[in-house]
């Protein structure tokens, strides 16, 4: 006796069509909303500081979305260009010397600068690789982002037996904005082929969105 396929009712088809449409439209709508929200946020910070004679909105009496963001990008780019030459570097060093003499502010500035230099530097290798470690115990595996090799005092104290140590970041699910910094022997880290972006999607989705993978590296 063969099982007859279950017939989908009219309302069932409507529900399936609605869910399909929701999967298509929701990410698109949220992306557009976040984009315009970011543009409005940037405009609200920058536009008030633009002199009226240089503001096109003053002459045309219309709001130009993204004008503040565009000016901010141009301004930051110009600052970066000037900061690379001798005169600009001298001005930057002078400003930093004042900040370094200011209590409380110097600690905050040094920390923020170190974070941005590490993340945005072209030659930085931070968070370009993903791996797996046994955590919290044998038989249980957790995904980690590879930060860098252990350096300085940590490397000197942990590498006494010649085992190279890696600094890894263990993020939680589903919001990987905070986590644990762990120093793990390199031999205990299973390197993955997936990109940090794919790993972040996997973490945020709670394992539901797994990136496609072809096991070509295993045969190599």
Automatic annotation (TrEMBL):
Q: Which UniProt keywords apply?
A: Membrane, Transmembrane, Transmembrane helix
Which InterPro entries does the record associate with it? Answer: COV1-like
Record keyword Translocase present: no
Quick check: keyword Acetylation in the entry? no
Q: Which ranges of the sequence are coiled-coil?
A: none
Q: What's the domain of life for this entry?
A: Bacteria
Q: Where are the transmembrane segments?
A: 21-42, 62-82
Report the PANTHER family cross-referenced here: COV-LIKE PROTEIN 1, PROTEIN LIKE COV 2
| Name of protein | DUF502 domain-containing protein
What is the protein's species of origin?
A: Rhizobium straminoryzae
């Amino acid at each position: 006796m063969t099982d007859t396929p279950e017939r989908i009712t009219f309302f069932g088809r409507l529900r399936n069509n609605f869910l399909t449409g929701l999967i298509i439209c929701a990410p698109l709508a949220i992306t557009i909303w976040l984009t315009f929200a970011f543009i409005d946020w940037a405009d609200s910070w920058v536009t008030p500081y633009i002199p009226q004679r240089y503001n096109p909105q003053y002459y045309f009496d219309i709001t130009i979305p993204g004008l503040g963001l565009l000016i901010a990008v141009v301004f930051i780019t110009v600052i970066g260009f000037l900061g690379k030459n001798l005169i600009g570097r001298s001005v930057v060093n002078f400003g930093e010397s004042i900040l370094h003499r200011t209590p409380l502010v110097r600690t905050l500035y040094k920390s923020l600068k170190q974070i941005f230099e590490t993340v945005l530097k072209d030659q930085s290798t931070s968070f370009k690789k993903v791996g797996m470690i046994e955590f919290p115990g044998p038989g249980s595996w957790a995904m980690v982002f590879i930060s860098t090799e252990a350096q300085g005092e940590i490397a000197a104290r942990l590498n006494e037996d010649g085992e190279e140590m890696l600094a890894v970041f263990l993020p939680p699910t589903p919001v990987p904005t905070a986590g644990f910094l762990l120093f793990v022997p390199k031999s205990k880290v299973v390197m993955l082929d997936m990109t940090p972006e794919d790993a972040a999607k996997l973490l945020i989705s709670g394992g539901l969105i797994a990136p496609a993978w072809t096991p070509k590296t295993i045969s190599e």
